[in-house]
Amino acid sequence: MRFDRETEKFRSYLWRITKYIYRRLHLKYFLLLILLFLYALLGGLIFNRIEAPAELVRINSEIAAQRTRHDIFIKSIQQLLLQHLNCTVVASYRSVTKPGLRLFDKWYSTIARHLSLVGRSLAPGPLQ
Question: Where are the alpha helices (DSSP H) in 25-98?
C-alpha cells in the first residue's frame, strides 16, 4: 500500500489506508462498542440528573433519623449514668457530655454516618 503521487492524491491515500485498517482490524465491532459505551454513559448522566434531588432528600431524612436515634441513645446513657451516680437532676445532653463523652459522641456520629453511607441494612433502626 504505497503512495503513488501520479495516480492518487494524499487525501485519498489516507482514506484508503483508513479503510484497510478498519477492515483488517475489525474496527466495526470496536466502534459499536464505543457507541454503546457512550449511550450508556449518556443514560447514566440523565438518570443521575433526574434522581439526584430525590436521593439527597432521602439521605438527609436518614441522617435526621440517625441523629434522633443518636440523641435518644445518648440520653438513655445519661440516665443510666446519672442513676448509677445516684443523681436526681437530669442535665441537658450537651452539658453532661463533657470531654469523655464527647469523644464517644464523635466516635458514634462517625460510625453512624459511615453506616448510613455503606448501606441501610447495616444501620440500626427502621431506616429501610
Answer: 27-84, 93-96
